[in-house]
């Protein structure tokens, strides 16, 4: 498998397992797609599905899942703790291997157009696919939630990128867009003083003048009694795991504190860790095709 | 592809491209096997073929290649600069993924037995598969080369592990065995004083009291005018790339010298570099199945 696109759609159903299974089955049955994971949250009444594969196959699976969601989910009766605006609430496309961001953006537009044209659902393009800067941030796009969409779609500057200007009452609105893979990386400090973690988090994140593609917060791990700097690196090709780590290590020393250990949560692209190995080992020239495992499926 | 075995047989033919192609074709046509690379050296009159795949398929491909080599190569007329004792001179089997060393040893015995029984070629098991300690080292096994094998096979303690005690004159003798993947790792120093690289090499290698699974030598890179510590890490799971690197960095400082950069030559198992990333980033708990790419083909 040479080219890999990842897709992580969120659906507004987390209680009726049978409906969730029907949606997931649409992903499973597309050739060239591998279902990596899916999980449902009853409180949020929401499910997240993760799959990867050849780009065209991934788009096909995403569309089929959106179609099934539009059949089995009724937004007029949906309740749950998580902000939402549609049956397939949001569908990010993430380039993993031999897919450029530009290609992922094109694919997101193709998917959005199909959802608009064939399912009659209004679609906003978001993140890297956004047609205007104010549509980049999902929270802004989704503001007003399902209940506010009828009015939002008709308000100035918020016409949908695809699909009808009239709200599809049963299915709501979907956000579709391309984004970088996210690396969830936490660093634990040799202190129970959460204020130190919070101070470091403020300094490392973009908002505080730190790294441009880093979101961070400080918290206390109650079970271990350790303060933690918890991060989302939203573009590891620009803000790397090792730069974030070294910044925290140095900043912690300022308070007389050391790094105890760190953790990567969930899936991580191989390159995010290979880049760290190359940097620490000072390997100047290295082609990732030298990694034996990458040669097996070309 | 869940389980991966690598095989890197060396054949005593490096001048007649057509014969080499015939041997390589035997590897190519086995289902479940991926040919990664092959190259021929005219001076050595020798070719190296690298392939990987599902263990049973790899053994099948190795046997078929050995059979073809026994047909197209005639050792009675072979000349070349590299030590050799047979048509398929040596065939290492290397566990890469979800294959234990014990399994690789069993597979090497199965392969050796087939070569002995079906092709009538004498086989010595070497490296981890060796039936006696003195057969572990290939150089010792091959001592006397093709020309000395008729006598060696009949001498005390050197009866073959498989196949006839009488030399197969056309095909010679083959060494078959399991070994760990080898990582070729070089570190360049901020000096043109090759004596410093030689002194560090002596200290880092097993022979000098250094790391148990490290072979090393010091040399001068003429084009860059930099001294280099050139290493073979013969078991990166016990002597890691990062420990070797940190040892050299520290030892170089003793001479007032820094590390300029380093290089990995050829293919490297993903884990050798992931282990480095984990160590430097102090990631305590990490399951390699968190690497997105590893999830695609299970």
From TrEMBL, chains A, B:
Enzyme class: transferase
Residue span, Formiminotransferase C-terminal subdomain domain: 181-295
Single GO cellular component term: cytoplasm
GO molecular function, a single term: folic acid binding
One matching Pfam family: FTCD_N
Localization, UniProt: Cytoplasm
Chain coiled-coil ranges: none
Domain of life: Bacteria
Pathways per UniProt: Amino-acid degradation; L-histidine degradation into L-glutamate; L-glutamate from N-formimidoyl-L-glutamate (transferase route): step 1/1
Name under which the protein is recorded: glutamate formimidoyltransferase
Chain ranges of the Formiminotransferase N-terminal subdomain domain: 3-180
InterPro entries given in the database record: Formiminotransferase_C, Formiminotransferase_C_sf, Formiminotransferase_cat, Formiminotransferase_N, Formiminotransferase_N_sf, FormiminoTrfase_cat_dom_sf, FTCD
EC number: 2.1.2.5
Keywords linked to the UniProt accession: Cytoplasm, Folate-binding, Histidine metabolism, Transferase
GO BP term, pick one: L-histidine catabolic process to glutamate and formate
């Amino acid at each position: 498998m040479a080219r890999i696109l990842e897709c992580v759609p969120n659906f507004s159903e987390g209680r009726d397992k049978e409906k969730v299974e029907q949606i997931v089955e649409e992903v499973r049955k597309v050739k060239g797609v591998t279902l990596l994971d899916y999980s449902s949250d009853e409180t949020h009444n929401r499910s997240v599905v993760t799959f990867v594969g050849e780009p065209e196959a991934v788009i096909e699976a995403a569309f089929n899942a959106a179609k099934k969601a539009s059949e089995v989910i009724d937004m007029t009766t949906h309740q749950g703790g998580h902000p939402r605006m549609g049956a397939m609430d949001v569908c990010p496309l993430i380039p993993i291997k031999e897919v450029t961001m530009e290609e992922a953006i094109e694919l997101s537009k193709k998917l959005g157009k199909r959802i608009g044209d064939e399912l009659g659902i209004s679609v906003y393009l978001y993140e890297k696919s956004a047609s205007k800067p104010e549509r980049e941030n999902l929270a802004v796009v989704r503001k007003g939630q399902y209940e506010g969409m009828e009015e939002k779609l008709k308000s100035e500057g918020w016409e949908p990128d695809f699909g009808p200007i009239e709200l599809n009452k049963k299915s709501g609105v979907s956000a579709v867009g391309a984004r970088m893979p996210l690396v969830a990386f936490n660093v634990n400090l040799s202190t129970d003083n959460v204020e130190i973690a919070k101070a470091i988090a403020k300094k490392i994140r973009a908002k505080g003048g730190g790294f441009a593609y880093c979101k961070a917060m400080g918290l206390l791990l109650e079970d271990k009694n350790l303060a933690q700097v918890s991060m989302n690196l939203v573009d590891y090709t620009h803000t790397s795991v090792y730069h974030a780590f070294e910044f925290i290590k140095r900043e912690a020393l300022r308070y007389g504190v050391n790094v105890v250990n760190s953790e990567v949560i969930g899936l991580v692209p191989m390159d995010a860790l290979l880049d760290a190995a190359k940097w620490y080992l000072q390997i100047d020239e290295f082609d990732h095709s030298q990694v034996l495992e990458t040669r097996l499926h070309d």
